[in-house]
Every structure is written in structure tokens, then in C-alpha cells.
Design goal:
723 residues; alpha/beta; 7-stranded parallel beta sheet; 6-stranded parallel beta sheet; 24 strands; 38% helix; globular; disordered N terminus; disordered C terminus
């Protein structure tokens, strides 16, 4: 059979999935998540063949299946192997996969048994059953795989130090699992229409699922006279599970251990209240969401949470969280295809892609730099950040990420001194990178001419240089009042840098057009959409406590002098929360309302404060590049469900449509009128505006762009700009 063609005209990736978890007639639920994963890869354009190992009759199945597996490998037509258990990797090794041209082995580790409480064991006396709890075995098998995917970050800690690990939780079918009418779901399943229904979706016969704890919690409820109808999992038809989720008042999980439990994500996708023990990624996934309780493994605690959940009648917004975290099958399949393709591309080369991120400024302070860097680290690459300045708190970490401060001194506010500092910083970075020899260097402007200093890395023959070009530098220097010759020199250096880079990442379509005129070889637009660390404000029960958020800045073009005049003229007290550092800031609140001014906040803490605000102010003075760059803060506000009072520019009108309050940039009267309108807007109107903006920009969220960014950085050919 001839290979097909995908939409790029390239032959589809041929994947062989080897798994001991696969649905059978006797065990319809067994490995259903692997089955759905395979279907998603196929829907994304891959050719996927499955070699299932049925171990229901015992461990000998691994050995007896080796001849058939060897024949399958010898037949070819495989670009990459995706194994879904450490035992399957051992089986592949015994079948000779590592010595054949069957493609690299990518192991997906779902196995959280090593984190089970001391002494806990599932029943069964077989040696293989006991060995799965031994972390040493998993560490040894990890070395046999070319690439490693873990469904939870804790599993990644089992890899040897420095080993790149991609963390990709299993995705769920959000088309199947979505909110539905409860009465109709109960009628479909023959469940009582009156009274509460509890769903315990785990297999109650397996000790890992903690059914004894659940039953003890039911006894506590019964003593209070509370007797809900209970549905136990284990024998429910997979096709009926969405209806069971929607029929339940509460979905309960009391597992002893998990990695990334599917039942929690499925319940969240149906917007059902959830009660769970603190296992796997549940606490992180549900943090801050109403209608979700994570409790200690005690009957009283579980019973109390169930009672509260049964009384809960508000929206849970769990589905929105699942989508924002990129946990749909489509999103996880896209990440897998990127990783599998990179594994194929690197076959015969080093299994680790080494990336250097160069940032002339503090790393942790820039949300654009941190979100991109974390995406690269999470893809499995080894990332070293070379930055300057140490005046902000370290807040993000990943086993594949190292942050090195090349210089700790603050950047000068004098353009000539800043240029000297940049030159010295670039030379020191070059010296480091010539010794280490990275595969990819991502340079975050400004100044973009750091790319020119790093061009000698090309002599190694494999280093790719990617320029994230998010500021129009010549216009910035001109705006700062620099003399004409300096503006001309800056423009020339910027043009050379853009032409020298193998690839350019632009912050907007307008910036991409500008970079194309400067001679960019190949480009990708990555907007300033943020990585979200807290739930959007529209999901919160409590009303916001501040009227307006404003941002201090190092850049004078933030229109805060206009805001100060507008607040004096608004005619009503407005509670103002000012966040950020820099000379562009409010010194007081002329409206007479409350005023709090905060310095630097790490993005998670910053976002937690922003969601307490009714509106956010993003005003830029009219300049030569107002329509080239959309502010980071605008995207952050939209993602967090906080509507904006924004300067009226063509770019912002195009982004937000009617879902913002616009004012003429630089006009105190116009801004005062806009603030008055914000104050007078009802809470329902405000939330409708916020929801409209989020919906309008949903397809441009960071979760929707991250995979494309990673692929763009890692697959452009050095020296040619060809992706």
C-alpha cells in the first residue's frame, strides 16, 4: 500500500504503538485512553498500527509475543515506535528493535505505582506485579528509550539527571464528554430522577481506586441521614460514561495513587462537581475552581466534601480549564506528533536537543520569554537561559531548564551605555556557547543585533539561530529622542540581524510584514497571549474588589500621565491597583478611591491580583509603532477574563472588536469618559464583555500556539531559513 500525503504534501508519519493496555471484550475499559490516543493520532494525519499485548493470562504474554513483534518490526513501514509501558520497552529490546531500522522508541510512562504508600500492593503474587512498584526498574528501562514522555512531572524525576523529558498528560475526547441535560442522562441510564446521584467511576474491585474509603464516607453520610444513589464503576459500558458523568451530582475519586486520572478530566469536561483525594495532578488541575474539592484520605473529610458538592449549584467551569490546559485529544495529539517527528529527525544524532535562550534582561520578569522557554523545556529539549539582572524572584522551574545569570548588574537607562552593556553581554554569551555548542539559540530582542554577535556559532555547522523580534527597535530609538545618525545605525543593525537569523518570530502580523521588508527568511507570528496560572475572573464566585488595574512600566509610552489627569476628572472614586515597576507609574489616585501600588510580582501572583479587578487599563501614547505591537498586558487581561480600557488603535480594534472600552490615545477627556463608562457598567455587562473578548481571541491563546512555536524553533534548517 502506498503511503498517503498530508496537507503539506509530505508522507504521513508511520507510528507503531506497542502497549499492554488495550480494550478487549472482557475488559472494555482497559487502556481506553491509549485507544483514544491512537484514534487522535490518526485523525491528526499519522498512520498508526497497534501491537497490543494481552497480559490477562499472565506475564508470559510478553515473551510469547516476541516472535510476532519481531516479524512486525522486520516488515518495516515504521518511522517511530510509541511504547506505553516500561515492560513493553523491555519486550521491544528483546525483539531487537534497538538494533533495527524500525525507528526510535518513544516511551510514554503512565505508571505512578512508585508513588504508592509504603507497603501498598495490588493483589497478585507474580514477580512482574511486585516489580512495577520498584523505581529502579523504571529508571533502568528509561535508558532503553530514545525519547521519554511522562504523564506527570513527578514521573520525570525518575529519569537520569539531565535527561530531557516531555510531560504530556493524556487527553480526553471533549466532543464525547461535554455538558448535557441531567434528567435526560438519568432517563437514558434508568437512574432515579429524584435525589442526588454519586458516580464512583473507578473499578471498585481494585484496591488502588480506594473503594473502601468511599464506602466508609458513605457510612458517615448515612449516619447523618444522607443516602444518595450510588453508581460504581468497573463494569459500566465505555459508551455510557459521558451520560453517567452528566447524570451525577458529584463524581468521586478516592484513589490511593494516580498519575493523571482520566475520570477527573472527563467529569470536568462535563462541568460536574468533583471530590477527589490528593493524587496525581488533580490538585494542580482543579486549583481555584469552584465545585472541586481535593481532600485527605479520611472518611469524614471525603463525606464532608461530598455533602458540600451535592449542595453546590453554581457553574464549575471545569470544561474551560480542561480546554485552557490543552487537554483535549486534539491538543495532546498535536504535541505527540511534534515529539514523534523530532524523534525521527534526530535518529542517529544526539537524543537531546540543546537550546540556549538569550535574554538581555531578567528572565523571570518577562512573561513572553518565560512562556516560550517553558514550552521548549516541556517539549523534551534541554534549555539553558543566559540572561542579565537579578532583581526579580525565580518563580518557574522544570527539570529540563537551567537559568544562568551572565551579568547581575541592572541595565542602564542611557542608550549609549546600554549599547556597551549589550555588546559586553553578547560577547560573554558567545564565549559560553562556543564551548557548549547548542543546537538552537533563541535570541529575545532587544537588541536584535545580538544575533550578529552570535553568528560565529554557525561555524559549528548545526546551530540554528531564532530571533524573537517583538519590538521595532529603530522606531523605539527614534521615539526616545536619539539623534538621526544613531537611529540610522540602529535601523541598519536591525536589518542585518533580521536577515542573519535562520528564523524570526514576530509578535503580530504587522510586525511580520515589517520583518519581511527587512529581509526575514522565514517567520512565525506568536502573539502575546499569556500562559495562564489562575482561573479567569469570570469563573470566580466573588465579585472583584478593585475597580481598575494599571501597570507601571520602564517604557514611558504607557499613557499613565493621561490616566492621572483622567482620574482627577472622572467625577467618582475609583479603586486603583497599580502593579509593576518603572518610572511610568501613578504616584497617587486623584479620583479619591483606594490606591495600592505593588512592585514586581511573579506571573502567578500577578494574575491572582489581576482577577480581583473589574477592568484593566492598557493605554499607549500614539507613536510610530502603536499599531505594530499589542501589549503583553492586554493579552493577559483578556485571558484572565478582565475587560480592558484601551487606546483606540487599528490593531486593538481588530483584536477586540466591540469587547473593550476604547478611548483616543493621549486624550484625558476621552479617557475620563471611558473610565466613567467602566464604572457604570453592571457586573453582568462587564462579564459579557470579558467573555466576548476571550471567545474572540480563543484561537490565539498560548495553548493554541505553543506547539507551532516549538516546532518552528526546532525544525528550521541552519543557514537557510527553511522550516
Amino acid at each position: 500500500m502506498e503511503r498517503g500525503q498530508d496537507f503539506d504534501g509530505q508522507p504521513p508519519l508511520r507510528v507503531l504503538v506497542v502497549t499492554n493496555m488495550w480494550p478487549t471484550a472482557a475488559q472494555a475499559h482497559h487502556g481506553i485512553f491509549v485507544h483514544d490516543h491512537v484514534q487522535a493520532l490518526r485523525a491528526a494525519g499519522a498512520e498508526v498500527d497497534v501491537f497490543p499485548v494481552d497480559t490477562s493470562e499472565g506475564t508470559r504474554a510478553y515473551l510469547t509475543a516476541i516472535p510476532a513483534l519481531r516479524r512486525r518490526l522486520r516488515a518495516g513501514n515504521v518511522d517511530v515506535i510509541n511504547a506505553h509501558h516500561t515492560y513493553c520497552v523491555v519486550q521491544l529490546a528483546l525483539a531487537g528493535a534497538r538494533g533495527r531500522s524500525a525507528g526510535p522508541i518513544v516511551l510514554t510512562c503512565h505508571e505512578a505505582e512508585v508513588f504508592a504508600p509504603a507497603g501498598f500492593r495490588e493483589p497478585g503474587g507474580r514477580l512482574s506485579r511486585r516489580l512495577i512498584y520498584w523505581a529502579g526498574l523504571k529508571r533502568a528501562v528509561f535508558r532503553l528509550a530514545d525519547e521519554l514522555v511522562c504523564v506527570h512531572p513527578d514521573l520525570a524525576q525518575l529519569a537520569r539527571p539531565g535527561r530531557p523529558v516531555a510531560v504530556i498528560p493524556p487527553g480526553i475526547n471533549v466532543q464525547r464528554y461535554q455538558p448535557a441535560d441531567q434528567a435526560r442522562a438519568r432517563a437514558q441510564l434508568g437512574l432515579p430522577q429524584d435525589g442526588p446521584v454519586l458516580l464512583f467511576p473507578g473499578d471498585a474491585a481494585r484496591p488502588q481506586k480506594g473503594a473502601d474509603l468511599f464506602r466508609a464516607a458513605l457510612d458517615v453520610l448515612s449516619a447523618k441521614g444522607i443516602t444518595p444513589h450510588v453508581v460504581l464503576g468497573g463494569s459500566l459500558a465505555p459508551a455510557d460514561m459521558p451520560a453517567y458523568c452528566n447524570s451525577a451530582n458529584v463524581v468521586v475519586q478516592t484513589s490511593v495513587y494516580e498519575a493523571s486520572p482520566m475520570v477527573i478530566k472527563e467529569a470536568m469536561a462535563c462541568n460536574r462537581p468533583v471530590v477527589s483525594t490528593d493524587v496525581g495532578d488533580v490538585a494542580d488541575l482543579t486549583e481555584g475552581l469552584a465545585g472541586h474539592w481535593v481532600v485527605p484520605p479520611q472518611p469524614e473529610a471525603v463525606a464532608d466534601a461530598i455533602e458540600k458538592a451535592m449542595a453546590f449549584d453554581g457553574p464549575t467551569n471545569g470544561r474551560q480549564r480542561v480546554l485552557e490546559r490543552g487537554l483535549s485529544l486534539e491538543a495532546t495529539a498535536a504535541r505527540y506528533l511534534d515529539l514523534l517527528q523530532r524523534a525521527v529527525d534526530s535518529k542517529g544524532q544526539a537524543t537531546t536537543t540543546n537550546i540556549a535562550v538569550v535574554r538581555h534582561g531578567p528572565f523571570y520578569a518577562d512573561p513572553r520569554v518565560t512562556k516560550q522557554t517553558l514550552a521548549l523545556a516541556e517539549s523534551g529539549a534541554r534549555v539553558t537561559v543566559l540572561c542579565r539582572g537579578g532583581d526579580v524572584a525565580a518563580w518557574c522551574e522544570h527539570p529540563n531548564l537551567d537559568v544562568v545569570r551572565v551579568s547581575s548588574g541592572p541595565a542602564s537607562e542611557s542608550p549609549p551605555l546600554l549599547a556597551v552593556q549589550s555588546l559586553w553581554f553578547g560577547l560573554r554569551v558567545l564565549a559560553r556557547l562556543l564551548r557548549r555548542g547548542p543546537d538552537v539559540v533563541v535570541v529575545h530582542s532587544i537588541p536584535s543585533w545580538l544575533v550578529l554577535l552570535l553568528a560565529p556559532l554557525r561555524l559549528r555547522g548545526k546551530t540554528r539561530i531564532v530571533l524573537d523580534h517583538h519590538e521595532p527597535e529603530a522606531e523605539m530609538v527614534q521615539e526616545a529622542g536619539a539623534p538621526g545618525p544613531l537611529v540610522t545605525a540602529t535601523a541598519a543593525l536591525e536589518r542585518l540581524a533580521v536577515r542573519t537569523a535562520d528564523a524570526v518570530v514576530a509578535v503580530s502580523a504587522a510586525m511580520a510584514e515589517r520583518s519581511a521588508r527587512l529581509g526575514a527568511r522565514t517567520q512565525l507570528v506568536v502573539d502575546n497571549a499569556p500562559r495562564l496560572h489562575v482561573p479567569p475572573a469570570t469563573e470566580a464566585d466573588a465579585e472583584p474588589t478593585w475597580g481598575l488595574a494599571v501597570f507601571g512600566s520602564l517604557i514611558p509610552r504607557y499613557d499613565l500621565d493621561t490616566m492621572a489627569m483622567a482620574l482627577a476628572d472622572v467625577g467618582a472614586p475609583v479603586d486603583v491597583l497599580q502593579i509593576g515597576r518603572g518610572p511610568a507609574r501613578l504616584e497617587a489616585n486623584p479620583s479619591g478611591g483606594r490606591f495600592e501600588s505593588l512592585g514586581y510580582l511573579p506571573p502567578p501572583d500577578l494574575q491572582a491580583r489581576l482577577v480581583q479587578c473589574r477592568f484593566g487599563f492598557v493605554g499607549l501614547k500614539p507613536t510610530a509603532f502603536t499599531d505594530l505591537v499589542s501589549p503583553n498586558r492586554l493579552w493577559e487581561l483578556v485571558g484572565l477574563g478582565v475587560p480592558g480600557v484601551v487606546a483606540d488603535t487599528a490593531l486593538l480594534r481588530d483584536l477586540l472588536g466591540p469587547y473593550a472600552i476604547f478611548y483616543p490615545g493621549g486624550s484625558p477627556e476621552g479617557l475620563a469618559a471611558a473610565v466613567r463608562k467602566a464604572v457604570e457598567l453592571s457586573e453582568d455587562e462587564r462579564k459579557a464583555m470579558a467573555d466576548g473578548a476571550r471567545l474572540r481571541m480563543h484561537d490565539r491563546s498560548w495553548s493554541a500556539q505553543a506547539a507551532s512555536f516549538v516546532r518552528f524553533c526546532l525544525t528550521s534548517t541552519p543557514g537557510t531559513g527553511t522550516p
